[in-house]
Write a structure and sequence with these properties.
alpha/beta
Length: about 325
């Protein structure tokens, strides 16, 4: 596989699904929107000014061109700019009365799954300035573990910070046991884990409440931090040393729908992390340490990024100035747990 010359401004490499969300309207019609958790995350990073490389190929069909246009508009670099001869992944999205999304997927023989561990690693080796490697969601299914797990192991060994968004989709898998095992194997390679309260339930992590389950999950991995999203309840950042911080909006948020909220949250968290002196000064991700000031900055930026997303239809990631404006106008409530 031959990759194009890649810009040295790339700081983050993302790998995982890019698909079309067919969102069910009130009259039963399906509205196509570019989506997929990793695709949304990648665009959200680019729109906040982060040099980002997307490692998976896209299709040459109409939907693939739509996905490519979205990446280009966000300033994202494609590791494989030439389309492949395979169809685009599809997801049918239903929204409940609260705007919460549920998904059905169509992903056999699709373009974004045409990757290999050696190809992913080769692309990253060409990026001396790469600081973060990120994946999650559909990339964590057991059938694709051999593609992504060796890549994650190589990125961690190279000293890059690895972030994994569990973002479980149980509807897509026939074998939940194998799926949970595959997700946990990926989380073992992460420095930073992102989960929702629903993810913890699906993983079957023990604990009296979401926070207790999050602590149990963090303790069962090698990760240094875990970000737990709680919907309207904000988010919590847990550190391996026991420090725990909570952040929530101080101003009301009018929710249109929640499509892409978690993806924008993680993008905001990573954007804020890249801004912190602690990351810039560390030479290896295992050496990185965050204090309360770092945690407050990360959570405030992440929560605002998610809030701006849910105030729009579909996944509409905010720009960096929009996030900064919101955190300035409505500073979130931050507290130590």
């Amino acid at each position: 596989m031959v990759f194009p010359s890649l810009p040295d401004t790339v700081k983050v490499a993302t790998a995982g699904e890019a698909l079309i969300d067919l969102i069910e309207e009130s009259d039963g019609r399906l509205r196509p929107c570019a989506g997929g958790a990793v695709y949304n995350l990648t665009r959200a990073l680019g729109l906040q000014g982060v040099g980002t490389l997307y490692l998976n190929p896209l299709a040459g069909d109409r939907f693939g061109r739509l996905l490519a246009e979205g990446m280009a508009q966000a300033g994202v670099t494609l590791a494989q700019p030439q389309p492949v001869h395979a169809p685009t992944s599809l997801a049918v999205v239903g929204l409940d009365a609260q705007g919460k999304a549920s998904y059905s997927f169509y992903r056999e023989g699709v373009a974004d799954r045409q990757v290999s561990a050696p190809g992913l690693m080769t692309a990253c080796e060409a990026l001396p300035g790469l600081r973060l490697a990120v994946t999650g969601c559909l990339a964590l299914v057991a059938e694709d573990s051999a593609k992504y797990l060796p890549w994650l192991q190589a990125q961690r060994a190279a000293g890059r910070l690895v972030a994994v968004d569990a973002n479980l989709r149980p509807a897509i898998v026939p074998d939940m046991g194998a799926y949970r095992s595959s997700v946990m194997a990926a989380l073992q390679q992460a420095h930073l884990i992102k989960v929702s309260d629903d993810d913890l339930d699906t993983l079957g992590v023990p604990g009296a409440d979401a926070l207790a389950r999050a602590r149990a999950l963090l303790a069962s991995t090698r990760a240094q931090w875990l970000a737990l999203t709680l919907g309207a309840g904000g988010a919590v950042l847990l550190a391996r040393d026991g420090h725990t911080w909570h952040c929530a909006e101080s101003a009301p948020v009018t929710v249109v729908d929640t499509v892409g909220a978690g993806d924008c949250f993680l993008a905001g968290l990573l954007v804020a992390l890249l801004q912190r002196p602690a990351l810039r000064q560390s030479t290896h991700a295992d050496e990185l340490r965050l204090d309360a000031s770092d945690a407050q900055h990360l959570l405030a930026h992440a929560v605002a990024s998610a809030s701006l997303c849910v105030m729009q239809t579909g996944c509409t990631p905010p720009s960096l100035p929009e996030v900064v404006a919101r955190t300035t106008a409505h500073p979130p409530v931050f507290r130590v747990l």
